[in-house]
Amino acid sequence: MISTRAHSAARQAAILIALGANLPSPAGPPRRTCEAALAALAEAGTRVIHRSSWYRSAPVPASDQPWFVNGVAAIETALDPEALLALLHAVERRMGRDRETPSERWAARALDLDLLDYQGEIRATGAPILPHPRLAERAFVLLPLAEVAPDWRHPETGRRVADLIAALPPDGGIERLE
């Protein structure tokens, strides 16, 4: 089991990923899917240092689809960003997500794994774009990120995660589950 308690190594985490799901997968309901995704990453050779609490969040943009379960994990890996992104997509496929079929961008999904930050690297083109281009706008990313890496700063702007959270609209449509 992965600890949800802060560790000094996690506070300085070099690689951060976001997890989210709002549909069942072969692993079970959304929360179980996210937990199974972390286990699959560990089985593939990444080391999960720390993970946040799980959060329940409204879909963005607002829609009638089910609410999401979201969290953030700090990991260590020898994989470069491209290979890590490929691994994240492979785990998504294993849980039933099909990125190959054209669909609505904001559709419900069995699993979404996003590479948020890779050792502070900044990339505006290619895949993956780093840091994740919309992470500073999303309460469902920033609140769990603050648990995992409270001293984290946005690699491009230098803004602290606490400042990014303070700049969010007051009703983020998010609640902590644990």
| CATH H-level homologous superfamily name | 7,8-Dihydro-6-hydroxymethylpterin-pyrophosphokinase HPPK
Q: Could you tell me the radius of gyration in angstroms?
A: 15 Å
| Average pLDDT reading | 89
Known CATH architecture: 2-Layer Sandwich
CATH domain class name: Alpha Beta
Q: What is the number of helices?
A: 5
Number of strands: 6
- Strand residues, percent: 15-25%
Please identify the structural class as seen in this structure: alpha+beta
Helix content: 25-40%
Number of domains: 1
Major beta sheet summary: 6 strands, antiparallel
Can you describe what's shown?
- The protein is α+β, with helices and mostly antiparallel strands.
- It has one domain: Alpha-Beta Plaits, CATH 3.30.70.
- 27% of the residues lie in helices and 19% in strands.
- It has helices spanning 8-11, 30-43, 81-94, 139-148, 161-166; strands at 15-21, 47-51, 55-57, 68-76, 112-118, 174-176.
- The radius of gyration is 15 Å and the shape is globular.
- The two termini are 15 Å apart.
- The model is unreliable at 1-13 (pLDDT under 50).
